[in-house]
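Sample intake sheet
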Amino acid sequence: MENDIHNNGAVDFVLPWVDGSDPAWVEAFSTAPGSEEGDDRCCRYRDWELLPYLFRGFEKFTPWVRKIHFITWGHLPHWLNVDHPKLNIVNHADFIEAKYLPIFSCNPIEIHLHRIKGLAEQFVYFNDDTFILTSLGENYFFSDGKPRDLLAFNAIYDSPIAHIKINDVKAINRHFDKTSVVRKNFFKIFNLKYPLVEIIKTLLLLPWPKLTGFFDPHQPQPYVKNIFFEVWDREKEILEKTASTKIRSSDDVNQYLFRYWQLCSGNFNTRSFDKTFSKMIESDGDADEFCNKIYSNRYDMICINDNIENFDLFERSKKKLLEAFETILPEKSTFEK
């Protein structure tokens, strides 16, 4: 195992980003193997122009973060201050082997995060649709060196990544016995910090002999690097297969494999998710609901999932969200030029 970088308990953020309108990227994407059958929906790559507010939130609400590792295909936002002392620009080639490049899927990127040079042992993985809305303490994501998370069982249902979750859970069942997981983590599973509905689901799924799935909060995810090295050591074949895919495929695994491994190992401390919100935007009402959540000052974090096919609805929703974020975060951060 490679030497871990502990940085005295420091916490880093990791954020991948792509400019789906970059002509060079579009050309490379269109000729990538598998592009004709992979997940090439525009909602996977389009820009909501909300990224500045994510950085404003980092600066205002989590000033204690040590580094922000910004992963890019090669292009950069025109407004980004690339000389910021907390910012580490990371190209795919900086941490992913050349034989796997180019990559147009988040899954191969996610499974290589531990290879980012200088990454702290404790890090939080963000997507560009996850936003911090209020001040968070230094122990929000980690306590006693362990990620803070929620372990609750679930059944996998129809979704764009249902097959990927099945692949994750199949791998977990190869290495963890459900009964042992429950015994080892009993008070981390049946915990009053969790929503009652998730505890009930877990109880109802106990008779199944195998792990059937996990509750996924779809929020910024805390990790420790050593879990990545352990999973790569034990599941190298399936990870190398995922690393070889250019476009997201139903045969992939993703970052959830590492999260589930982390949970089943008991390498986490519990926390509540009652002040987080995640939902697909599929209507004007959904966009309005997100704006109300942003204005309410009641939520720590939100995740804005794009599932919009209608262009006019996308433009209306984007305008509403830009106005809402500008209201709560009007001042530029030092991450902006």
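Comment: Residues 1-6 have pLDDT under 50 and may be disordered. DSSP finds twelve helices and eleven strands in the chain.
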